[in-house]
Write a structure and sequence with these properties.
The protein is built from 21 helices and no strands. By secondary structure, the chain is mostly helical. It has 2 domains: 228 residues, MFS general substrate transporter like domains (Growth Hormone, Chain: A), CATH 1.20.1250; 196 residues, Up-down Bundle (Growth Hormone, Chain: A). The longest helix has 40 residues. The two termini are 41 Å apart. 52% of the residues are buried.
Length: 432
């Protein structure tokens, strides 16, 4: 029996991290859809509205990199709480602005303040990579696919779920009341994470003042398999020197960045290309969003059995087939089927990528998860303008032919996944 005190177990670590990510992601889901309400009262241009809506996603992507690497030195609790705390500050500020100034006193002079508050409210999205690292240290490699798939799958349900609740909240509570309700939800959720969130055993021992080597030995006896190599900077540098980190980043750009982009693109696609109503378009988009998230749980278990590389290849093939159908289909039912194929492929692909992160970069899981999660999410910014170019060139038919972007990304990612499979088990030098 160990002479040191341990708190929690892998299951409790998974529950705490999943709760923290769900809370952080759900809270910001209010800002994007309601930011457009500021357009008329503040006389904002479409470009200004676009920047306003993009602010939470920008901070939520960029901050994944340093905060995930920070996990390698302190465990996940502190980074989680800092990010959730920053989100609370942002939501508190937005709530105050709405109650004090909206609509009559809300002028363009407050636009810079809204940009800053939007950036702060998006910090909760960055908890994703923090939780990936936190959960990775808790679980053995043989179960990481399931654990990380469960974590990301449940946490990513938040935007789709709250897209159903938002219209009800706005109708019954008004804009200010909805923001206040979301703020309370975020504060309560952060308090719950404070009590439920657990660092893996190695980090608990380090907090007790145990020297690193002894902490590693004791934590290994308790069942921990993966350990960090050094500081936050070390984690980022070590992971950046591993070429597999960048291959996984590119694949995640396709599967998760593509998921973010398509969630924003689909409502307009359905309404413009098939002339359906806003409610139907929203329902189809929510179907895509929730299915992509939930299937990550299954994808994680499949990755444990088949291996992350093989699972990624199968998922990218599925996504690619769906994208080809979306390109050429002018049939409503076939396009719905194609959307479902893309959801299945991208969701399972997301799970496969993070099965591979701790496998391929075990000495710097936090740094690798930060690079992959942060830079991969930029697909959400890069893909829509490229697809929009097809619409500008072709008009309404461009909404379909623009899916050639996803076909191309799927093919590139397939090549990378095949290369990873061919190099399975090879050790990459981590020094310059």
């Amino acid at each position: 029996m160990s002479k040191y005190r341990f708190q929690g177990n892998p299951t409790e670590g998974l529950v705490g991290a999943t709760l923290g990510f769900f809370i952080g992601f759900a809270a910001v889901s209010l800002f994007g859809p309601t930011a457009k309400k500021f357009k008329d009262v503040m006389d904002l241009t479409p470009v200004m509205v676009g920047f306003l809506v993009a602010m939470p996603s920008l901070s939520g992507s960029l901050l994944r990199i340093p905060f995930s690497a920070w996990v390698d030195t302190t465990g996940g609790r502190k980074p989680f709480l800092v990010l959730l705390g920053l989100s609370i500050v942002g939501m508190l500020g937005l709530t105050g602005v709405i109650y004090l100034y909206y609509p009559d006193r809300l002028s363009a002079s407050l636009y810079p303040l809204l940009l800053v508050l939007g950036l702060l409210s998006g910090c909760g999205i960055a908890t994703f990579s923090v939780g990936i690292s936190q959960v990775s240290y808790w679980f053995p490699q043989s179960r990481q696919g399931w654990a990380l798939g469960t974590y990301a799958g449940i946490g990513n349900i938040a935007p789709g779920l709250f897209s159903f609740l938002l219209p009800v909240a706005l109708a019954s509570l008004g804009l200010g009341g909805a923001y206040l309700a979301w703020l309370v939800f975020l504060v309560v959720g952060t308090a719950l994470y404070y009590y439920l969130g657990r660092n893996a055993w190695y980090f608990q021992l380090r907090d007790q003042g145990v020297p690193p080597e002894e902490a590693r030995t004791e934590a290994a006896r308790a069942g921990q398999e993966i350990f960090p190599a050094g500081s936050t900077k070390d984690s980022l540098v070590i992971s950046a020197r591993v070429w597999k980190t960048w291959a996984l980043t590119a694949i995640y750009f396709t599967t998760f960045g593509g998921f973010i982009a398509l969630t924003a693109w689909l409502p307009t696609y359905w309404q413009t290309f098939f002339k359906v109503g806003a409610v139907t378009a929203g329902t189809l988009t929510a179907l895509y969003s929730i299915l992509t998230s939930v299937i990550r749980v299954v994808g994680g278990s499949v990755s444990d059995r088949l291996g992350g590389e093989r699972t990624a290849i199968l998922s990218l093939l599925t996504m690619g087939v769906g994208a080809v159908l979306m390109m050429f289909s002018h049939n409503y039912g076939l396009s719905v089927f194609a959307e479902i194929l893309m959801a299945l492929g991208m969701g399972v692909g997301n799970a496969a990528v993070f099965k591979l992160v701790p496998q391929e970069v075990p000495d710097a899981v936090g740094g690798a998860a930060g690079w992959v999660g942060g830079l991969g999410a930029f697909g959400g910014f890069a893909i829509p303008p490229v697809m929009g170019a097809f619409v500008r060139a072709q008009g309404a038919p461009g909404y379909a032919t623009g899916f050639v972007v996803y076909v191309g990304l799927a093919l590139i990612s397939l090549v990378l996944a095949y290369v990873l499979q061919r190099n399975h088990g090879t050790v990459t030098p981590q020094t310059a």
